[in-house]
Design a protein that fits this description.
Layout (H helix, E strand, L loop, with lengths): L1 E8 L4 E2 L4 E8 L2 E9 L12 E2 L6 E8 H7 L12 E8 L5 E8 L4 E3 L4
Parallel strand pairs: 1-8
Antiparallel strand pairs: 1-2, 1-5, 3-4, 3-6, 6-7, 8-9
Length: 117
């Protein structure tokens, strides 16, 4: 099926438009960048799925969300160093026949995620 993400800015109550997100594949100690995207006005990848088709394989992956860069671009005064710089979520895909959705709810001070649908 595929992998998607959606980011909501809980500080402003809006999608995190403009946030940079990187997707990596983890294979033991090796970490490989698969792609990097900038989220659209809805807080989603403008191209749709992050992984799909033959690229959507069983394995371990990492999403890295540039939280500090996003909030700085919104003009939020952040302490140095930032409390949250980049949020890294490691997760596994066990059933490639299913859809995996990894949403992020984030502010400069907190975040939460879950496996969505």
């Amino acid at each position: 099926m595929g992998l998607s993400t959606h980011v909501l800015d809980t500080m402003h109550g809006t999608p995190a438009a403009g946030m940079t997100v990187a997707l990596y594949e983890i294979n033991g100690e090796s970490v490989t960048l698969l792609r990097q995207v900038v989220l659209n006005q809805d807080g989603r990848n403008p191209e749709g799925l992050l992984l799909a088709g033959d690229a959507f394989q069983r394995g371990c992956y990492r999403l890295v969300f540039d939280v500090a860069g996003y909030f700085a671009s919104r003009g939020v005064a952040l302490p140095q160093p930032n409390f949250l710089g980049k949020v890294q979520i490691d997760f596994g895909i066990a059933e490639p026949a299913q859809h995996y959705h990894v949403p992020l709810l984030v502010s400069p001070w907190s975040y939460s995620t879950y496996r969505g649908s």
